[in-house]
Amino acid sequence: MDVLERARALAATVVLGEVAAPTLIALAERAAVLELEPGAAVTTRRPDGGVVIVVASGQLDGDGASYGPGALLGAAGALDAMAPAVTAVVRDATTLLELGQDDFLDVLAEHPVAARALARALAHALREARR
To answer: CA 20 to 30 Å from 124, out of 14, 72, 96, 113?
Structure first.
């Protein structure tokens, strides 16, 4: 997966889709690409901190939800270390992009429109959880 493909996958998320192309390309250059087979476990918590994961292709199931292309996992954990980790299992062959929390937070700080999009997404998730 080249840098432009990674940037397109980042842009497919609700939050990062609000970010200018040069910033997405810079972020894509730093994103780790994970190619996973069905049955593999995924988590946003690492021993040295958390990560933010973008589903580029494929499907994940976990925490009572399914995550497909454009899904952004671990954003709440990037904002608050006390937020629970997102855990999931790969359903189909899947490509993920893994972003460091600091990189993700830097983008939010530099692009208020992305921070607002994240706030809307988290508010929506909170409303859904209360139903």
So the answer is: 96
Which structural domain range is residue 10 located in? 3-130
CATH assignment of the domain containing 69: 2.60.120.10
Question: Two tokens at 74?
Answer: 């671990």
Q: Which whole-number Å values give the CA distances from 57 to 9, 34, 94, in the listed order?
A: 8, 11, 5
Most confident segment among 5-14, 16-25, 110-119: 5-14
pLDDT in tens, 72-87: 888 888 877 777 788 8
Euclidean distance between CA atoms 1 and 126, whole angstroms: 34
| DSSP type of residue 68 | -
* pTM for the whole structure: 0.86
27 and 13 Cβ atoms separated by less than 8 Å: no
Q: Helix or strand or coil: residue 2?
A: coil
**Do 74 and 52 meet the contact criterion of CB atoms below 8 Å apart?**
yes
Number of separate domains in the chain: 1
